[in-house]
Design brief:
This protein is α/β, with parallel strands linked by helices. The protein contains eleven helices and eleven strands. The longest helix is centred in the N-terminal third of the chain and has 19 residues.
């Protein structure tokens, strides 16, 4: 009788443990993130919607983890805390050099020919210019970039300033770093800096939304094009989530369609019409400029 009761207790305990989820490892999830280049509220809406869409498409739980700065995104990716990140061109290069075998999955259609814009306060009297040499008008002026690791808010604007012969010491005081594209618009609009550089897509979106006071700040130059943002995946995703998962993620991103209402909302938040394939060599220019500035080791 005692043996029978003991056996019954063991069965009941096993059932309870299994019911409580203690009977094995929890299902593996895909953890994604992005560089914090805009208002955190907008990023939360965007990546929550994308996570839900990918969860449905892949049949795998997808979780978005917000980050506080650009460097944190590269560090978390290197440690393996993040499986996939929407990096800028520079942070993507930095991440690939630290995690060999990483796979650039896709970029937005707008990232094939991305641009930065230089803006200035109307009170500064800085007039719009028509070419890169015209950026010499910023000599002797105060200027802010976005994040120190931003491709469109620091790296490429600094490159074009160098092309125009505007060295860092030619500015009025050290260049600032606002932290994000939205913040650059805000600090220039406030008059804290006479000029700033930021992501052209963010600038266009804010203009369209009517959130820029054009009586205080205006665009003065739009740069030549370069490749920028892209999704980068760790090389061990298939080992963690099953063979072929990386390809399925790529297909899900490339399969987002503006004709579908859910997809359109996601693409609109991304400021894109679609995602398109990409490859490592698209970011060769960014890597070269990054190495010249000591931002890529």
């Amino acid at each position: 009788m005692r043996r029978a009761l003991s056996a019954l207790v063991l069965v009941l305990v096993s059932v309870l443990v299994a019911a409580c989820g203690g009977g094995g490892e929890p299902p593996r999830e895909l953890v994604i993130s992005a560089i914090p280049d805009q208002d955190p509220g907008k990023l939360q809406r965007l990546y929550t919607a994308l996570s839900e869409r990918l969860t449905t498409s892949l049949g795998i739980p997808v979780r978005y983890v917000p980050l506080t700065d650009y460097a944190a995104s590269v560090t978390a990716y290197r440690r393996g805390d993040l499986d996939m990140v929407f990096f800028g061109g520079l942070t993507g290069v930095q991440a690939r050099t630290q995690v060999p075998g990483s796979v650039p999955l896709a970029q937005r259609d707008v990232d094939e020919r991305f641009r930065s814009v230089f803006i200035a306060t109307t009170a500064s009297g800085i007039a719009p210019v028509g070419d890169v040499p015209g950026l010499r008008a910023l000599s002797g002026r105060s200027l802010t970039f976005g994040s120190e690791s931003s491709t469109s808010g620091r790296l490429m604007p600094q490159y074009f300033l160098d092309q125009a012969g505007v060295a860092p010491n030619a500015l009025r005081g050290p260049a600032g770093f606002s932290g994000s594209h939205d913040a650059t618009i805000a600090v220039v609009s406030s008059g804290a800096y006479e000029a700033g550089a930021l992501n052209a897509t963010v600038w266009d979106q804010r203009l369209a939304a009517g959130t820029v006071d054009t009586t205080r700040v205006r665009e003065i130059f739009r740069t030549p094009t370069y490749h920028d943002y892209h999704w980068l995946a760790r090389p061990d995703i298939d080992d963690q989530l099953g063979a072929g998962t990386t390809g399925r993620i790529r297909d899900a991103l490339l399969g987002l369609r503006a004709t579908d209402p859910v997809d359109k909302n996601i693409l609109d938040l991304f400021g894109a019409g679609s995602f398109v394939p990409t490859q490592p060599q698209n970011y060769d220019q960014v890597e070269q400029v990054g190495r010249s500035l000591g931002l890529v080791q």
